[in-house]
Each structure stands twice: as structure tokens, then as C-alpha cells.
Specification:
The strands form two sheets. A four-stranded antiparallel beta sheet has the order 3-1-2-8. Strands 5-6-4-7 form a four-stranded antiparallel beta sheet, sandwiched between helices. 44% of the residues lie in helices and 22% in strands. It is α+β, with helices and mostly antiparallel strands. It is built from eight helices and eight strands; from the N terminus they run H-H-H-H-E-E-H-E-E-H-E-E-H-E-H-E.
Amino acid sequence: MGRKWNNIKEKKASKDANTSRIYAKFGVEIYVAAKKGEPDPESNRALKVVLERAKTYNVPRAIIDRALDKAKGSADENYQELRYEGFGPNGSMVIVDTLTNNVNRTAPAVRAAFNKQGGSMGVSGSVSYMFDATAVFGVSGKSLEEVMDIMLEADVDVRDILEEEDSVIVYAEPDQFHAVQEAFKKAGVDEFTVAELTMLAQNYVTLPGNDAEAQFEKLIDALEDLEDVQQVYHNVELED
């Protein structure tokens, strides 16, 4: 289980190194979530999830407010949520989630990124069946026993609670995201080391040698660099 959090942490560290790109992606995601309902997180649960995630990535308030103001205004950009699945080197599995206002641009760009880095696009469902949608929260400053007590007292249904490095990690069903969040907040915890709705691989694979790892990392970087890509998930256990 520990490798799950490590993969999220590696992805987050990679994103932290490209803050302007990440802020732009969150701006789009916040706008789309706000447009789907009220631009108020207290009455729009999808928006509340995005804003909690944005908080863990230190997205500036100005970017959040700009996206919310845009959603409140007359702007009416139409975005579609599309998922692409594919394979990297040595049969590694990759899921690419996108938000796009131009499908004719996105699909060829994702396909080209796979092809240029030794991968290939798969059909819908060819990869995702090997991943589980999961809500993940991480907290520091609390012991494993304390977090267990918080979840038990709130009667939250969680998959697992584990101590991993300097955080206690809670894994739960996606529909339990708000329940876990509220349980922590009622216990006085409102800062998270991770707060994600993610796709976690059921099994992880290693790649044979540094060259294969380098090629795989180039594939992930190429995908994450695409304008329309919001999230990239994979099942590769990279060396620390």
C-alpha cells in the first residue's frame, strides 16, 4: 500500500516543479466545476473537492477567484471530460484524464505523445479496469491511532489507514471524500499533505533498467505538458 502514496507524492513533486502549468490547469478545473452548479463550494460538492485539492498544491487565491468570477460571468466555454487509456514501455499502463474545449485537438495530441515515447493508445476500458478510483487524504502531526479514532467516531467507511513516512494516509471510496474531509475538520484538522480523488493501480510494475525508466518518465512528462491534460495515472513503481 505504501507505494500508492509514494506514486502520488512523486506525481505531486513533479507538478510542484511546474507551478504555472498546474495553476492554469486548476483554473480550468475550478471554472468547469463552478459552471456545473453554483459557484459556491458549500452548495457545489464537485467544486468543494477541486478547491480542497487546489489548497494542497498552494494555488494562489487570485487564480481561484479569477476562475470563480469567470464562472459567475457571461463566459460560456464548453469543456468535455474525456479519458484516454494506453500503454507505455514494457506494457506499463497509463490513464490520461482531460478537460477540453476542442476534442479534435486533444485526441491527436495524446496519441502523438504516446507514440513518440514508445507507447500506444488503447481502447476505452483497456487499462482502467486495473485501477481503483480512490479518495486519499494525508495528515501530519497525528498518530495512526488518533486518525483511526477520528474516522471511527465519525463513522466514516474507509478502505485503509496507514502510517507512511511522515504522514498518516486514509484511503476511502470516492464518495467518502467529503465524509473524510468533514471528520478531520471536526477534529480540528484542516491542513492536508494530500487531498486527492485519484486512480490507484491494483498492482505496480517495475521497468527493466534506467533507460526504460527514463523513457517512461519522458512519456509522463509529455502527457502532463499537454494543455488539455488534467491528470495522468500509471502503475509503474519508479526508483526513488
